[in-house]
């Protein structure tokens, strides 16, 4: 799903403008202490210096009031614009959703047609090839391929079988499924997702609250500084203590730049996550992603490409390839995993079978706990395939060659599956594991940022070691059951680290909930999606790496603009203080501070104030797009950003204020 380049099209201009003014409401503004002080200051200037002394009609006071008003409007605009972009993305998602007719299965087996909006949790529906899936649910019966491109933008169809989750709005391409609807109207996954992207549930994140509080304290200190300056200025003559000038000084000194952009930066961070097709359930999750110390990735599907294909049968002595192939085929007849299907295909090829043979029996599905799958045939035979250690535990005296062949496969980075019938090991199936391209570079980037990558796999040690080495992860754990993954997360967290992980199965749900950032796959089970704090609509596990990047960028953007904002105020201090007291002979020493050579006190104050206002819209693009950054350690990044944004933050206003002063001079205002 590609969101158009500039989602804030003409439709949004009206709402952005309306919101810009609506946000002036002091009851809303109070949540932003810095801008609230500006608003109060503006009201004071308008009241005392313009309304009360309206006869005088001094253009200086009026100009200051207008610039102050613009400063506040730029701030409310930044937030309104960021929100509108989020809404535009939400509308885009909503357009992909449409109402359909659903075939509801009645208890007596008959079907009735109802509108999809009438389906409730527990409704059972039948979906046939070509039908749109009428709501979020799970598959009860059948196997079919589903086109999820409306949701994910991914054109390759996804196979859905019993217990898989399906999403309303996607289309069944083949076969027939019986579904159980899992949500009530208005609560579908898409509904909730849209509400989230729309920012309806947006709350300030802990870091944002901490930074706002800090900015609030800083503002309070400057209010005290300026208030105590009033009697001093009065002493030197009433002119210097003009209320308008005092308010202008205050507004220049308090961190208005970051105060104006803080909220927009947070909203834009969530928007950027949704631009990579990930829905974050909270801004907090995006922020946590930026602070991650350890990333836990599973092997199959994340580090290696998802469908491991069977490529070879390696029988033990005394067993023919055909015999092993047949046992493998039988063990996989009921196995709907990509591994199972590829075993069936390879066996069919070797046995020259065009159609599948019929066997009756009780299927034993694969589970990450038993690490095997198979079938209990009606004739009494028990056929199993699975991880070599799991099979070894249920056979008598496995021949030495089983181990030798398993190692052969593992050392090649493949997954060996052992096959047994009634306690007799027949041989090994080689599943090919292919490491995804480009991962090594990404893991190197993370290492440079000080983030550790750990692969957690249910596979054997040797395969795990080979794949870990090839992919370039920092560490791995092998033969891990789901609870081992949780234990690993808890261990890292106990050391004070923030952990991110990705997963798709019901098995992964507890680990997703335990992790600080749990990215669930949209193709995964509902349990996993409920447990995670982010959902990847493309179901691409490597997306976690993008999410961490977006989180980092959010934190750096906030840090950079905070540094810039505070550095900026230094220059404004040098512009205003000498100008304020320029007419006082006793303070002629202050003239040395007038390094910009500003001509008149009013000109200096207006220039500083205009610069202070204009820097806000000038930085909106950085707030929305995020500042540029590269993969490096947190320390280096901090140092570089303080240098760039801090030094620039001091220099730029000197140039800007000087320039504005010259322009005002042309109009006789300075
Ligand atoms: N369909 C299957 N039938 C039988 N055994 C399987 C099947 N799929 C996997 N296995 C075996 O069970 C082991 C554990 O599977 P599990 O899904 O826990 O881990 P994995 O797929 O190897 O790696 P990851 O933890 O990264 O998903 C696999 O390594 C493999 O040996
Ligand atoms: K300021
Ligand atoms: Mg697996």
From TrEMBL:
It holds the Pfam family Hydrolase. ATP binds at residues 335, 339, 366-373, 385. Mg(2+) binds at residues 504, 508. GO terms for cellular component: plasma membrane. It catalyses: K(+)(out) + ATP + H2O = K(+)(in) + ADP + phosphate + H(+). InterPro entries: ATPase_P-typ_cyto_dom_N (IPR023299), ATPase_P-typ_P_site (IPR018303), ATPase_P-typ_TM_dom_sf (IPR023298), ATPase_P-typ_transduc_dom_A_sf (IPR008250), ATPase_P-type_domA (IPR059000), HAD-like_sf (IPR036412), HAD_sf (IPR023214), P-type_ATPase_bsu_IA (IPR006391). Residues 98-198 form the P-type ATPase A domain. Its EC number is 7.2.2.6. It is found in: Cell membrane; Membrane. The system is composed of three essential subunits: KdpA, KdpB and KdpC. Belongs to the cation transport ATPase (P-type) (TC 3.A.3) family. Type IA subfamily. This is Potassium-transporting ATPase ATP-binding subunit. It comes from Sulfobacillus thermosulfidooxidans.
């Amino acid at each position: 799903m590609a969101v158009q380049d500039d989602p804030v099209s003409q439709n949004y201009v009206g709402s952005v403008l309306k919101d810009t003014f609506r946000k002036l409401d002091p009851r809303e503004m109070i949540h932003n202490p810095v801008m609230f002080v500006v608003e109060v200051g503006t009201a004071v200037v308008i009241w005392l210096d313009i309304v009360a002394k309206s006869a005088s009609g001094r253009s200086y006071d009026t100009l200051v009031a207008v610039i102050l008003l613009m400063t506040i409007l730029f701030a409310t605009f930044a937030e309104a614009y960021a929100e509108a972009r989020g809404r535009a993305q939400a509308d885009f998602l909503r357009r992909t959703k449409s109402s359909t007719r659903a075939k509801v299965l009645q208890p007596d087996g008959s079907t009735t047609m109802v509108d999809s909006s009438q389906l409730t949790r527990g409704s059972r529906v039948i979906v046939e090839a070509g039908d749109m899936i009428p709501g979020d649910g799970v598959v009860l019966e059948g196997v079919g391929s589903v086109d999820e491109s409306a949701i994910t933008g991914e054109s390759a169809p996804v196979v859905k079988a019993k217990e898989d989750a399906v999403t309303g709005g996607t289309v069944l391409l083949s076969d027939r499924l019986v579904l159980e609807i899992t949500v009530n109207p208005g609560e579908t996954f898409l509904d909730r997702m849209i509400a989230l992207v729309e920012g309806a549930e947006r709350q300030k994140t802990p870091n944002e609250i901490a930074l706002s509080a800090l900015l609030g304290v800083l503002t309070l200190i400057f209010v005290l500084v300026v208030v105590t300056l009033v009697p001093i200025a009065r002493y030197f003559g009433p002119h210097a203590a003009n209320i308008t000038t005092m308010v202008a000084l205050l507004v220049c000194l308090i961190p208005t730049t970051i105060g104006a952009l803080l909220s927009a930066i947070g909203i834009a961070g969530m928007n950027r996550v949704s631009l990579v097709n990930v829905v974050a359930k909270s801004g907090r999750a995006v922020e946590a992603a930026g602070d991650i110390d350890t990333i836990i990735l599973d092997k199959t599907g994340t580090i290696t490409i998802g469908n491991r294909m069977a490529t070879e049968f390696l029988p033990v002595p005394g067993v023919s390839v055909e015999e092993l192939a047949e046992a493998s085929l039988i063990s996989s007849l009921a196995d709907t995993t990509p591994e199972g299907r590829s075993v069936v295909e390879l066996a069919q090829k070797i046995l020259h079978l065009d159609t599948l043979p019929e066997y009756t029996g009780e299927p034993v599905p694969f589970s990450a706990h038993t690490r095997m799958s198979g079938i209990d045939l009606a004739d009494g035979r028990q056929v199993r395939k699975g991880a070599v250690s799991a099979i070894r535990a249920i056979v008598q005296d496995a021949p030495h060659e089983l181990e030798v062949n398993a190692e052969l496969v593992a050392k090649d980075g493949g997954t060996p599956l052992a096959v047994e019938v009634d306690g007799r090991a027949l041989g090994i199936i080689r599943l090919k594991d292919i490491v995804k391209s480009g991962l090594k570079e990404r893991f190197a980037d993370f290492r440079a940022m000080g983030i550790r990558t750990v692969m957690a796999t249910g596979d054997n040690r040797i395969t795990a070691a080979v794949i870990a080495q090839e992919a370039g992860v920092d560490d791995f754990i092998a033969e891990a059951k789901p609870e081992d993954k949780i234990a690993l997360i808890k261990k890292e967290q106990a050391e004070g680290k923030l952990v991110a992980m990705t997963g798709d199965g019901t098995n992964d749900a507890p680990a997703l909930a335990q992790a600080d950032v749990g990215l669930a796959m949209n193709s995964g089970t509902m349990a996993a999606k409920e447990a995670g704090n982010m959902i990847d609509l493309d179901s691409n596990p490597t997306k976690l790496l993008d999410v961490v990047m977006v989180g980092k960028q959010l934190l750096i953007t906030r840090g950079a603009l905070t540094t810039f904002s505070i550095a900026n105020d230094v220059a404004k201090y040098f512009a205003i203080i000498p100008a304020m007291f320029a007419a006082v002979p006793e303070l002629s020493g202050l003239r040395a501070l007038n390094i910009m050579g500003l001509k008149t006190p009013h000109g200096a104050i207006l220039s500083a104030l205009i610069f202070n206002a204009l820097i806000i819209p000038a930085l909106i693009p950085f707030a929305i797009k995020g500042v540029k950054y590269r993969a490096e350690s947190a320390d280096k990044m901090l140092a570089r950003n303080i240098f760039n944004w801090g030094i620039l933050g001091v220099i730029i206003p000197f140039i800007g204020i000087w320039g504005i002063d010259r322009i005002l001079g042309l109009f006789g205002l300075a």
